[in-house]
Structure formats: structure tokens, C-alpha cells
From TrEMBL:
It holds the Pfam family Phage_AlpA. This is Prophage regulatory protein. It comes from Tolumonas osonensis. InterPro entries: AlpA, Prophage_regulatory_activator. It comes from the Bacteria. Transmembrane segments: none annotated.
Length: 59
């Protein structure tokens, strides 16, 4: 299981930081894993699955 930081999440999804956090609250985007303090990361497989679902739903 690989964890990725917000910059990689933004690169993979093409979304801005604020949009990612908005989608966490409203559109089922995967929640981050708190690593302590202000450090957070996402499970890469969860982000990849979300992207795949978005593609599937758009077709």
C-alpha cells in the first residue's frame, strides 16, 4: 500500500487543492490519512479507484 501527498493527488486528478477538499465533503473523494501534525497523505489505490469511477460514470 502506497501513500501519496497532496501534490501527487493534484497531479493525478488534475484538481486543485481546494477542490479536492470540497470533493471529500461532497462527492465521495477518498479521505486523507493523518500522519501526525499537519502531515497527511492518501492511499494511492483509493485515488486511482476514484479516478476510474469518474471515468466510468462519464461514459
Amino acid at each position: 500500500m502506497r501513500l501519496i501527498r497532496i501534490g501527487n493527488v493534484m497531479f493525478k486528478t488534475g484538481l486543485a487543492r481546494s477542490t479536492i477538499y470540497k470533493f471529500i465533503k461532497t462527492k465521495g473523494f477518498p479521505h486523507q490519512v493523518n500522519m501526525g501534525g499537519r502531515l497527511a497523505a492518501w492511499v494511492e489505490a483509493d485515488v486511482d479507484n476514484w479516478i476510474a469511477n469518474q471515468i466510468s460514470n462519464s461514459r
